[in-house]
Amino acid sequence: MENEKFTEVEFHKKMAVELYNFVWSLMDKKERSQEETDTMIHSAHASAFHWSKVGKPLQFSIGEWQISRVYTLVPIPESAIFHAKRCLEICLENGIEDFALAYAYESLARAYSVANDKEQTQFYLAIAKEKGELIKEQDDKELFFSDIATVQN
Question: Whole-angstrom Cα distance, residue 119 to residue 117?
């Protein structure tokens, strides 16, 4: 097997992407062991860390979104809310719109749903759906509305 050499930037980007995808593989499992759950949490944070070294605000917001989503599955609502708020802050501070902004509001709705806060869930669901209507790419819009439909309200 050939040894690959990466620049520091290449290494961080490779790790960020690989960890992000790995987290999805764990999120998609119907049942996870405690070890897999721990690994999923740590890997989501690690992916966001690597993006913090080489990414841009869009990647930072997506990293926070994924961390929030992971915490909704565990469930640890306080952490889910914290990272969902951070996701939205990054979007708003950097003028990020379209699917990332819609998903920032989706993450807040989902996190508050897990926290059993119906009022906040409804509030953020309404904004998420409004922002979802503004998604330009039809495939992205369909995916968003499929995902938002899974938020318990």
Answer: 6
